[in-house]
Specification:
Rossmann fold; eleven-stranded mixed β-sheet; two-stranded antiparallel ribbon; alpha/beta
């Protein structure tokens, strides 16, 4: 943990500033392993492998930690050789590189760092937050960026000073939290005056809700995530070829392919055969393993933005349902 992060960190219980417990833990302006302590000395938080930890080791996002540590580089543009993550980031946020350069940016639900990498490349000072052990994958992937800060924290008890960040984004995350509205509100509270927030969600509409994953999830989400991972990695290579055949049938192909419970990007992304398989396994796992999966409607997102007094609200579809706004 770089000491420069202390400026914005706060105890998630009391809101107090934090200090490093032992100055001996500080080496060249960074704490690799040690503790942060609240002003009243009542709360202590571990720093392990340069990541400060504000949450228990086991939590509802364990499956995501397993996912992103296994597929830690799969969706990084620097690894795939594609612009898939950067295209989604810039088209969803509608920010420019000049806007976020040298600015503090909160990545809420960073996973292995696919979008954090994009913001870091643009010169932003990125705080990559995740509830799961995916923070370790993110740190390992991106630690060569001097403007990276990785925090394992709870979106419902953000360990930052309020009203601070000029930019906040959360892509592909909030629908997997227990209370999506509360998650969104919490992020807005961390947004500074004049700041911009962008979050996307699964779209709650008939076409989406008829997807095979929602027929199977009542069963699959109850299966131990390690066992579910074995099931997905065994079945996907067997049924993906069938999905590939169906999806290329004119007119009826795509609707038919929706009955095959596998994520298929063969007609969307120019990936190699092996990359297609890895992305398919990763996102099929993402369909069936999370404890929570809560799509949202356009009207609901608009209401949340208005209740938070956001301005310049935009709700649009780009892969997911995107909500954008600015704080007064």
């Amino acid at each position: 943990m770089k000491l420069s992060l202390l400026y914005i960190l706060r105890c998630p219980v009391t809101g107090q500033s934090l200090r490093v417990e032992n100055q001996q833990d500080i080496i060249d302006g960074e704490v690799i392993n040690g503790f942060l302590v609240s002003e009243d000395n009542m709360h202590k938080y571990r720093i392990v492998n340069s990541v400060v930890r504000f949450v228990p080791e086991e939590n509802y996002a364990d499956n995501f930690g397993m996912q992103w540590n296994h597929f830690r580089r799969t969706q990084l543009d620097s690894f795939s050789g594609q612009n898939i993550s950067s295209d989604r980031f810039w088209k969803s946020t509608q920010w420019t590189q000049d806007e976020i350069k040298d600015k503090w940016v909160l990545d809420a639900g960073c996973g292995s760092g696919r979008f954090a990498e994009v913001a870091l490349r643009a010169g932003a000072k990125v705080v990559a937050l995740d509830y799961s052990s995916a923070v370790d994958a993110c740190y390992d992937n991106l630690k060569h960026y001097p403007n990276l800060h990785v925090v394992q924290g709870d979106i419902y008890a953000l360990p930052f000073q309020p009203d601070f960040f000029p930019f906040i984004y959360s892509l592909g995350v909030l629908q997997h939290t227990p209370d999506v509205e509360k998650s969104f509100n919490s992020l807005v509270n961390a947004l500074g005056s004049g700041g911009s927030i962008c979050a996307d969600f699964y779209w709650k509409r008939l076409q989406s809700m008829c997807h095979m994953k929602y027929l199977l999830r009542p069963i699959t989400k109850r299966i131990d995530h390690r066992r579910m991972f074995r099931i997905v990695t065994t079945i996907v290579p067997k049924i993906l070829p069938l999905s590939n055949v169906l999806i290329r049938i004119p007119v009826i192909g795509k609707p038919l392919s929706r009955f095959i419970p596998v994520a298929n990007y063969s007609t969307r992304f120019n990936l190699t055969k092996e990359q297609q398989l890895q992305w398919s396994i990763l996102d099929t796992w993402d369909w069936f393993s999370p404890r929570y999966d809560n799509p949202q409607s356009i009207s609901t997102l608009k209401k949340w933005c208005q209740q938070n007094n956001l301005q310049n609200i935009r709700i649009f579809h780009y892969g997911h349902l995107v909500a954008k706004g600015e704080k007064l």
